[in-house]
Amino acid sequence: MEDKEIRKRVEQLRDQIREHNYRYYVLNEPTISDKEYDQLYNELKRLEEEHPELVTEDSPTQRVGAPPAEAFERVEHPSPVLSLDNAYNREDLENWLKRIGNLNPEVADAGFTVEPKLDGLTVVLHYRDGVFDLGATRGNSEVGEDITENLRTIRSLPLRIPPTSEGPQPPDYLVVRGEAFIKLGDFEGLNRRLEEAGERTYVNPRNTAAGSLRQLDSSLTQERPLTVLIYQIVTSSEEIPETQVQVLESLQGWGFPVPEYDYCPDLECVLEVINQWEERRDQLDYEIDGAVVKLNDQELAADLGVVGKAPRGAIAYKYPAQVVSTRLESIEVNVGRTGVLTPYAVLDPVEIGGVTVRQATLHNFDFVAEKDIREGDRVEVKRAGDVIPYVIGPVVADRTGGEIPYSPPRKCPSCGEPVEHLEGEVAYYCVNLSCPAQLIRNVEHFVSRPAMDIEGLGIKLVEQFVEQDLIKDVADLYYLKSEDLLGLEGFGEKKVNNILGAVQESKDRSLEKLITGLGIRGVGEVVARDLAERYQDLDELKKSEQEDLEEIEGIGPNIAWAVVDWFQQAANLQVLDKLKTAGVWPVSRGESQPQVPQSLEGLTLVVTGRLPGFNRREVTEYIEARGGRVTGSVSGNTDYLVAGEDPGSKLDQARDEEVPILDEDELRGLAGEHLSTEGERKGEKSD
Length: 687
Ligand code: IVH
Description:
The chain has about 675 residues and is α+β, with helices and mostly antiparallel strands. It binds 2-(butylsulfanyl)adenosine.
């Protein structure tokens, strides 16, 4: 390239990087992948290294990120909040080690830690005399934004670090750095609640976390399930521990949540741990985009210094992006149980991280309109963990002109009745109470585990029952007879008996579960529990007025109205009559429901393989809800290994270490599930 051309390319790269920084750091809406960004950044860095005369003070390589938004106070960081250089393969790591080994041969014996690279936002937390008194975003690496009030709302963030009984005492002045993010399960829960309330759902955990941290009203942040993990001491009034392992141990000892980590003596071990994290990536309850390799010896790491804005003593190993682009064949519409219509993309099948993706959510019709997503577009799709893949947006540059702009349907795709859309609201509804798609979803919800928990009644059977006109509402389940089912395809006597038995058995479920099952808009498990505590039975709840309901903590006018409205619909009253006649009429205990028994408290479990009744996140939630801890690998601290189908090497490890092995049923037994269900029923009857 000629000098003039190089100068032009440098300018062009700077403009592009500034634009992407702005989108990423200020708008929280990146339009390119990290890898593409890194390529631009690295090209600029290389050109500037080759032509130092072209470096300017305002080049993006001279500072990281964009300036803080004006509405927040500025916080000067005690030292620059650095970023990391990236590696993508073994060779990159070898080159890194060679480079730093040449600078200081002690690197060869320094050892490493390997931590997950959490895909969230950097936060810097200041503690004075053991009290959290300031928290900031990274901003431009020198100056961040004061988001103290927002950070205070994060439950995993310690507001106080009291003196410890063993290990080093917390320093009087301590500044730590970590990552704030939203766990995938929490994100899904948040969206489920919003969907139930007919409100707009969030697009992905990272953007939601970023937006939540930068809320000017911290009460809004409080409603978002943010989490933090802390991995670095930035500054301290005491000496910083000698090794990264000690840093993490000290932080943990002072009450900070820290990421899982491994110590590795050499590169082979580092690569093995990196691979293990990549394999676990899909099963984690949080998103990671790589692993961070750090020299364990912190003094040595500090001596190696900084190049640009990245310390030499650590590197980020990036995994392949879970984003790919593919053709969007068509936009189809799903009808939910409350009649909400949701668009989804039918894709030209594409592999993302070893899984073939054929469909992806498009969130809601506003999203499709805002992003101007068209049928025939090439779109970017992301799949992370086992959340439903979602469309990020169209690749506008690839348009050929044949793409078809989209408008929301005027008729319900299931029953053909007109669709309702209130001006200013996000949701489009099918309001036809006998819409078969809604009925299927309603019954599916009614029989689900958090509701009436009718075993063996999956979506396929529900569809069959609705299509064969065997049920017209949820109460009809209790009027099914053997002869109705015996004629259906694939139904033998045993299957029929099992299903009818499970339906009968569900008559004993609690009022809370029945209320959950009714599918009232905005009434999920939590609100149902509150209602079941307050009201004796559904007759009493039916008589409640808007104001009575609003008195209950956690119930606002929208939910209160939805409850009152539900009990005014003739079709719903008919369902209640039928339930009562069938004997499905639980009476509340009228007292606070017991929390889930902490039957796994103090136990550390490892899960491997596919379990019949849980996906990976559900089993983790199940164990954690009962006080247990789930870790990723079998060690001397593991109390049980829960093994399903295709268990992999953990099973051998557990056998070697003589760790007891459980299947799903045994796990439920250990958790005391059978006992607690019995107790619950006895409690109800004796009332
Ligand atoms: S250490 C000076 N450790 O990755 C090194 N960073 O550029 C400081 N990140 O923005 C970073 N997980 O927000 C470190 N376990 C981890 C991390 C981690 C995620 C983020 C961090 C930073 C980016 C690297």
